Amino acid sequence: MDDSTGPAALAELARSLRQVSQELDRTLATCLGEPSVARWHVLGAVADGAGRSMSQLAEASLLTGASLTRLIDAMINDNLVLRKVDDHDRRRVLVFPTRRGMLTHEVMTRAVEQSGLAVPAPEHDRLVVALADILDRVRLADSAPLSSVG
What we know:
The protein has helices spanning 7-32, 38-46, 54-61, 65-77, 99-114, 121-143, and strands at residues 52-53, 81-85, 93-97. It is mainly α. It has a domain at 16-118: Orthogonal Bundle (Arc Repressor Mutant, subunit A). Strands 1-3-2 form a three-stranded antiparallel beta sheet. The longest helix has 26 residues, at 7-32. The model has no long low-confidence stretch (mean pLDDT 89).
């Protein structure tokens, strides 16, 4: 089998995707003036003012557990977000933006818009579809049972 269609090609794809992701995060962080893009993702998730649960913020920021809790605690200390008990389920806590958080999100988003990083809509759509297809394939392969060897 040709390496371009086998495990070597898959390894190269994995390295390339990781490299693009890391470089994009570094570039965005520099543009945002932040050590990471997680604050921007959280502020984007709560920007509509509806409040988001920690599980929703984990999905938006790709952080989980203690890392997400530390981020939210730091954002509360910086007066960017606040926590409130959910009116419908007292066991749940929702995170909302503060006025300062909304303004910070606007400034960050404007910085990204002015950075030249924006991807034109047709190219963006093609990239999103291609990446979603790769993600679906990976998830499908991950859920498939391993074949026996031997």
